[in-house]
Amino acid sequence: MPATPDRALLRDYKELIGSLLFLQTGTFPEISWIISVLARYMTNAGEPHMAAAKRVLRYLQSRKKVPLQWCALDHALPGIIHGYADASSADIPDTRLSSIGYVFLVNGGAISWRSTKTPLQVLNAAEAEIVSLSSAAQECLFLRKLCIKMGFHQHRPTILYEDCEAAVALS
Predict the structure, then answer these.
(1) 155 φ, ψ to 5°?
(2) What gap in Å lies between CA 78 and CA 69, rounded to an integer?
(3) Which tens digits make up the pLDDT trace of 141-165?
């Protein structure tokens, strides 16, 4: 019979994960993946889960003096959206579920990002990358429409970087 989780620990864990979710949404996209993994244990968290969440806090503490960058870079045109999409192979082998993600930048600053477990079963890495590209393309269309509504017209195609040659060839 599984042990009943400690109520106080569970409450503290939920509060901590909620705060970390807020932080990753607004300022720290690099913690998205680990927060999505930790959030899976909201109903049955234990000491190891709390220890992992506290490690994320220590990481954020080390980033305290690193400023958010919002300036034009040499390789990016000012005011132009560009993005990166990626996927990892199945992290749960029996289910064939992979992790997918993307990030979109303007002037070197991240404006939109996502990291999640794919809802689809895939057979190989190329299929996972295609799912990631599809998700990123949907977000790209939304961002371009948002820019137009805000008066920032994108006169060039949005560049979306992908590291899997098979996925690029299939798309």
Answers:
(1) -85, -10
(2) 13
(3) 999 998 888 888 888 888 899 888 8
Average pLDDT across each block of 10 residues of the chain; the chain has 171 residues. List them in order. Answer: 73 92 80 86 90 93 73 58 84 68 83 81 83 92 89 85 84 76
Tokens encoding 27? 């300022």
Q: Structural domains in the chain?
A: 7-62 (no CATH), 81-170 (3.30.420.10)
Q: Which of 31, 3, 1, 4 is nearest to 16 (CA)?
A: 31
Q: Distance from CA of residue 72 to its chain's centroid?
A: 23
Give the pair of three-digit tokens for residue 14.
């939920």
| Helix, strand and coil percent figures for the chain, each rounded to 5 | 45, 20, 35
SS3 27: coil
At position 154, the amino acid (one-letter code) is Q
